[in-house]
Specification:
By secondary structure, the protein is α/β, with parallel strands linked by helices. Helices cover 54% and strands 8% of the residues. It contains 40 helices and 14 strands. The strands form three sheets. The chain has a six-stranded mixed sheet. It starts with a helix and ends in a 12-residue tail after the last helix.
Length: 888
Amino acid sequence: MAGTDLVRYSRDGDQFHYFWAARRCLLLLSPNSDLKAITIEGASPSEASDAGHITTGEELIDVAEYYGSEKLEHAMQIRYIQLKHSTVRTDKAWMPSELKKTLEGFAKRYKALQQQFSTIDLNGKLEFCFISNRPISTNFLEAVCDEAAGHPARHAAEKEKLERFTGFSGPELTAFCKLLRLEGNQEGLWDQQNLLAREVGGYLPGMDVDAPVQLKELVTKKAGSASADNPTITQKDVLRALKTDEPDLFPAPCLIEECEDVVPREQEQELFQEIVRAGDAPVIIHAAAGVGKSVFATRIKLGLPEGSFSVLYDCFGNGQYRSASGYRHRHKDALVQIANELATEGLCHPLIPSLHAEPSAYMRAFMYRLRQGIDSLRSKNRQALLCIIVDAADNAQMAAEETGEARSFVRDLIREQLPDGVRLVALCRTHRQKHLDPPPNALRLELQPFSRNETAAYLRQIFVDASEQDVEEFHRLSSQNPRVQAMALSRKKAGLSEILRSLGPDPTTVEDAIKNLLEGSIAKLRDEAVIERSQIDKICAGLAVLRPLIPLSVLSSMSGVEEAAIKSFAFDLGRPLLITGEAIQFFDEPAETWFRERFKPAAGESAAFLENLKPLAANSAYVASVLPQLMLEAGQFDELVELALNSEALPGTSPIEKRDIELQRLQFALKASLRAKRYADAAKLALKAGGESAGDERQGRLLQANTDLAAVFLESGRIQELVSRGTFGSGWVGSHHAYEAALLSGRKELVGEARSRLRMAREWLRNWAQLPDEERQREEVSDEDIFALAGAFFNIHGAEACAHDLRGWRPREISFRVGRILASRFIDHGRYHDLDELALAAGNDLCLILAITLELREVHKTPPKSVVERALRLALNPSTRLRDDGRL
């Protein structure tokens, strides 16, 4: 055999190893797996870090799998795996003599682990695996099985070899054989390659030829000398290879709060049975406004057979479904969210979003996961069902049409052939069923208003002593509508008599209830100030037309009513409206719908409304950003194109916001032109958009370099939109989280979201720190990145956390360099008190103290006296060594 052939065969073995390990890496994405880490070419350095790394037998370990933890004492299981591949002798069985070296090495490692971890029971915790594409001697396999089971040996000669190879006999040999796994006849090299491509494809919504290559390349790098000190692969590494991140896996979480003390519906059991018996027909639960569709949606899971599972998808999202940063109607939002909630329960593969996947690809991937999910459930209980519940499904289609899209995900999903055992339940308004475009076999079920008994139970949760006459009157006046009853009872402080008086004398619908509350609020506003009805109408029109979250300042400017009065108006309404910071939004869909139907300007009035709104764009980025959509809805296409081409009605508050909104406007108008087949307009818009895009990249870099200023000058809505678009990032994977945390943390109302982004940035940094030196150099963390992190730490957790984070970086001079940037920015903002706190928190970090002192000197200020004294003591201390260049 030629020497070159031997080299080729050896390389085949390496490739077999890499493809096999890459397939195992996908398990790190599975929520159903306890697999926490995989190491390549050796054991994890963390396995026995406290007691010293065990090298015995490590040369045999091609792959090690760690379940539960990388630390042996905490791990549920550790599998040491040797892989062997043959290109030519694929049918020749492995003989015992060929396995001698493997068994000797495994046995020695087992003994070494027993000695070092003598207080831990290793039986059941360890596995020693030999895996090959060749078969293994049947007699030898039977000898191992006999010994592990404690049965008499069928092959005495094979047992004798086992004893000789391992050095064990009696109970010790039995214990070792219980941990030994010899697996032959595995798929060969090319099958492994095809399986990897297929299995990676199972995690993605479409074909991605690059993903399997990147995953295999990850394993290859970990097998190289550069990764000798860190051969570990974690979930973060796999996400990095697949070019995604955790927030992308759950883009639209359910915001429906499960109510306490829910009144069980008398109709529930009947509806539950209909859902269970529906077969592959989609179920549409419809009702008028306020009858309790969302509450019922949260209770469907209670009526499913034992062993079933359900996912509730929320299309309304507290009214944010119409906001660009909170879309919930797209396939890439809804199907990814639902699939990954299933995956979290271990029912299917996760669905990794892809930048270039079409809606049809997402749908195919989602249907595959439904089949996986029901197969998993029915493997344990043949009667189990998998139920997908879509609340406010009509809102999803309405949002799609508003943005110029023909179909939301629900229109496509409702026409799919569901796998046996899967139920699809969509909830919507009765008069909007046509929005869903359901197939003829759809099962339509109506949710009825409250019965008298249900009204009695609900009323007596608040007023325990309510009489039968009170119940009868409350039931009649509220038109048996749960939402009307909830709105009325939210004013419980007024007493039951006053509530009944406010509902009477005639029965009240949801619309009438909201109307009555509005009129009451208007009367109160008139008592407080002279406000004309036209001003109130403008407030209501703004609420009906504008996208959430609506700045109070915009409503104030439109109506001429002070912001405080608008807040009072919202608080008087109570349940329908919600104040979030300095913005307002609808609490629930019936209120939003009523406002839109009652106050949305008619076709002839839209132009006047827009003319009234346009002047506000000069001082409001929010208004400037919503104008294009409103103009398109009003049929003002020519005006929209002219607006985009002439750069009219742009905010003058900030050049950054102006450029950002102008580019968005051009892109929106361009898409609208293409859909309308107005190609001449599209060509003009495309030319201008091309020039603005180059400027947008420069603007993005400017914003990233000045997140502290952007947080001050940009509106909260614009900040959230920038974050949702993934504007930022630097050289390392996950770096965008650092800049997003810094930007968000500059606004008090966004600190909660900033904290989440900061946590993810730190997790990615820990992953970066484990990369080989060469890769870390390619993904360099800059001083600007560390400054963004430090600023976020200060804004979120305070001075102590910020100083602690800076002390953690090496070399120590980083604390000086970044400290100067941080101090300079604090001085620019006049945050002298914060800077003093940081200096006090610096402790013995002389680098940070010197950085702060140096920057304060530029404005003729000094740190607190105690800080200066401490710095002087540190500098004069003989143990503090300063180099000639001034570095520590």
